[in-house]
Write a structure and sequence with these properties.
By secondary structure, this protein is of the alpha/beta class. 43% of the residues lie in helices and 16% in strands. The structure holds pyridoxal-5'-phosphate.
Length: 398
């Protein structure tokens, strides 16, 4: 018998706010009714704000982030195309695998898990590609497995410096709606996300931001696609409709979650994620533990991957937190299994929830054999939260 709530501190699915859950409790609708389309048009315009685009299009597919990856690839590339990708975590590894399965020739840069996107190596390979054989560069903006955020603006700069024409693909599944995302400023051609992370919804939508350059590429790309055809989606979306039955409940939920984000202010959403993440990182430092991210400048504001000391099993930490304290932490994926546990801090979250995560992590860490002082992480996070609150109040007064 479990009492109280199950604390969900995983980096997706994230907590769905009560108002969003209630907004989804609606009867089924006629998806071809003459007034159904009008209901959805604002979703596209408001999602463009979240992606940071005024010139691109946003598309909503039934599916998850992985489906959106597939849509991005199959609509804009052709079999045998050469693409440049870095492999430095679970999700970038899966993206490489998908690209290979779909018949792309992947030029892989292997890096330690915990590294960021390899800007200078991208520069070297793109600079050497005089004949423009590389058709696309893929970057995982926020590697959820390692808690590493990469610098997309820097990748754009490298492409521009090399006068390179490759499409820029960005996996924003655990960044869009949580971290700053500037599709137009960064010249992102295909931005991918899913509904169950920053957007605070259940899984079920694969969401894409598509630049005009990517749309132009989709006119000539020859990879096979059917369900994910951009052309079908765009034709129907123009009126707020979909080429096949949309998950209408999710559309209502999305309307509500976008309202919440716009009410809070997108810059404030980003600032809140930074503030909350800073507290979690302060706790990790107070425990004397290391994050998986190789350098503080890479630290993600949506998830922190924490290395446990040698001889301690991170799976035990997660198991204890779940079984004894009704709290879910993210596991170490792939080679990080047993070495890392992750605290997800994105979506509908506040200081109290982060302090709960930290306090429960302390219990679980100690029970799993880590030597730390109870309350050390909590106190370190509290110090961050009160300082940054004070700064916010000062700013508002000025
Ligand atoms: C969650 C996640 C995915 C996979 O998305 P699904 O919605 O589970 O298909 C891909 N990339 C990143 C960075 C993620 O965090």
């Amino acid at each position: 018998m479990r009492t109280g709530i199950n604390h969900l501190f995983i980096p997706g699915p994230t907590n769905v706010p009560e108002t969003v859950r209630q907004a989804m409790n609606v009867p089924m609708q006629d998806q071809r009714a003459h007034d159904f389309g009008a209901q959805n048009l604002s979703l596209f315009t408001d999602l463009k704000q979240v992606f940071g685009t005024t010139t691109g299009e946003v598309m909503l597919f039934s599916g998850s982030g992985t489906g959106a990856w597939e849509a991005a690839i199959t609509n804009t590339l052709s079999p045998g195309d050469k693409v440049l990708m870095a492999r430095h975590g679970h999700f970038s590894t899966l993206w490489v695998e998908m690209a290979q399965r779909l018949g792309l020739q992947v030029d892989i840069i292997d890096l330690p898990w915990g590294a960021g996107a390899p800007i200078s190596e991208f520069a070297r390979r793109l600079g050497a590609d005089r004949r423009g054989e590389i058709k696309a560069v893929f970057v995982t903006h926020n590697e959820t497995a390692t808690g590493v955020t990469s610098d997309i603006a820097a990748v754009r700069a490298v492409l521009d410096d090399a006068f390179h024409d490759a499409l820029l693909f960005v996996d924003g599944v655990s960044s869009v709606g949580a971290l700053a995302f500037r599709m137009d400023d960064w010249g992102v051609d295909l931005a991918v996300t899913g509904s169950q992370k920053g957007l605070m919804l259940p899984a079920g939508l694969g969401i894409l931001g598509v630049s005009q350059k990517a749309l132009a590429a989709s006119k000539t790309a020859t990879m096979r696609r059917s369900y994910f055809e951009f052309g079908d989606q765009l034709k129907h979306n123009a009126g707020g409709y979909f080429p096949y039955t949309p998950p209408t409940q999710l559309l209502h939920g999305l309307r509500k979650s976008l309202d919440r984000m716009l009410d809070e202010g997108l810059d404030n959403v980003v600032a809140r994620h930074h503030r909350l993440a800073s507290g979690v990182r302060a706790a990790v430092a107070a425990w004397g533990l290391q994050t998986c991210a190789e350098h503080p400048s890479l630290a993600s504001d949506s998830v922190t991957a924490i290395r446990v000391p040698d001889g301690v099993d991170a799976c035990a930490v997660i198991r204890i937190a779940y079984d004894r304290y009704n709290a879910s932490f993210g596991s170490g994926l792939g080679p990080l299994n047993g070495k890392v546990f992750r605290i997800g801090h994105l979506g509908d979250l506040n200081e109290g929830m982060c302090l709960t995560a930290i306090a429960i992590a302390e219990l679980a860490l100690v029970e799993a054999g880590v030597n730390l002082t109870f309350g050390s992480g909590v106190a370190a996070a509290q110090a961050v939260y009160i300082q940054s609150k004070a700064a916010t109040v000062r700013l508002a007064a000025e």
